[in-house]
Amino acid sequence: MCRRLFLLLGFVAAVFLVADPVLVSAQEKVIKIGALYPMTGRPGLYGLDSVDAAEMAIAEINAKGGVKGYKLELIATDSKAKPDYAVRMAKRFIDEDKVHFLFGVVSSAVGLAVTEVSKQNKKIFVGTDHASTQLTADKLQPYYFRVSNNTFQSMAAGALYLKELKEKKPWETIAYIGPDYAYGHDQWNELKYNLDRFGIKYKVVGEYWPKLFAPDYTPFVTSIIKDKPDVLVSGLWGGDTVAFIKQAQPYGLFDKMFYFHPDAGGNYEAMSAMGAEMPLGLVMSARHHNNWPETAANKEYVQKFFQRTGRYPTYAAEGAYAGILAIAAAVEKVGNPDDVEALVKAFEGMKISLPEDPEGFTSYIDPETHQIVQVQAIGVTVPDDKFPPAKKMLGNWKIYKAEDLLPPKGFKIGDLKK
């Protein structure tokens, strides 16, 4: 009788476990990643692409058995691109969802807010898209790591490009337009710093500071044309880039000056949104390009993303993909996701092969700044319809070595010329 009762109780327990997936999942070892991305408005596509790419990487890793017996799980929420709201969500991730990692964000303003939550809670924050150098300089804290280029790297490449341009097509005056917050101001100050560092002579004839997501750029367009710079540098991003270009075209702005957008202008989102309207001859870059480098790894990544989503990826997607690979590599080295201090050491100096790496180079995280070190390519808009709905893509590439783009040792934002 006792034996029968024991067997019956065991059967009931087994049925209960099968019937209750929550209890079943509780037995699984899971690495929880709390992702914060905008999902609506002008930056919404970046968030959607980031989540899709992160989930693509997670599916690939989990299909191979996960990491050290752990499966990866992404918990994503809309950051609304608002720092205060994102901070509340990050705290909820930590306190209620018990995430092992904070992840993502597009806006540098949100990144600067979330990094404080990371620091206070000793929770590793993997930055996948936002680019303000402050996060890996003045505001660097032990638990923050960035897996995409920062603005300093882009502006160093930009300064080198302008130096080469000056030798071929002399220019004297320069102006800048960028969003009126850390990301925009950092770019301009870092470009001037690097122009000075590389011994390039220039005269500033205008600075223009629209608010993020500004609806009307025509007052800025008319002011820029009036100031007549030889070179106009743009620090806009996403839908703001598209809006500015569309509103500037009727005024002939791109025929009157050299337009240069070295950080985020060459993103695929701008190419696809403008289609045949994208002007030829604009010089731009981005943190990932669908058509460069022409390596098997990059082609495979772009095609897998397209097969999964039905669209080609923006650069934000590759940053999120890289972030998941970095987390997996760190946990693989440490053995579990709970030893935070050991994970910090695993991230520092990590080498990680990514789709954007050209042949012969592997991205790595600088142990001192926690910033990924990568090659940068700057191109020119040319006819290319291989990635519809885009009709123009970047081509005629100039490639800049990763180590040439790093700031001097001990660099701080306070070193910049204001």
What is the H level of CATH, i.e. the homologous superfamily of the largest domain? Response regulator
Helical content, roughly?
Answer: 40-55%
Highest-level CATH class of the largest domain: Alpha Beta
Number of domains: 2
How many angstroms does the end-to-end distance come to?
Answer: 86 Å
The CATH architecture of the largest domain can be named as 3-Layer(aba) Sandwich
The residue-averaged pLDDT reads 92
Query: What is the CATH fold-level name of the largest domain?
Result: Rossmann fold
The secondary structure category is: alpha/beta
Spans of 5+ residues with little confidence (pLDDT < 50)?
Answer: 1-26
Assembly type of the chains comes to: single chain
Number of strands: 15
SSE order in H/E notation? Answer: HHEHEHEHEEHEHEHEHHEHEHHHEEEEE
What does this structure look like?
The protein has helices at 2-19, 21-26, 44-63, 83-97, 108-121, 151-168, 182-197, 218-227, 239-248, 253-256, 268-274, 296-309, 315-334, 340-347, and strands spanning 30-37, 71-78, 101-104, 124-127, 144-146, 173-177, 203-208, 231-234, 258-261, 283-285, 351-352, 363-365, 372-373, 376-383, 392-400. By secondary structure, it is an alpha/beta fold. The chain has 2 domains: 24-149 and 294-373, 3-Layer(aba) Sandwich (Rossmann fold); 152-291 and 376-415, Rossmann fold (3-Layer(aba) Sandwich). It has a 7-stranded mixed β-sheet with strand order 7-6-8-9-10-14-15. A hairpin with a 6-residue loop joins strand 12 (363-365) and strand 13. The longest helix has 20 residues, at 44-63. It is globular and about 65 Å long. The relative contact order is 0.13.
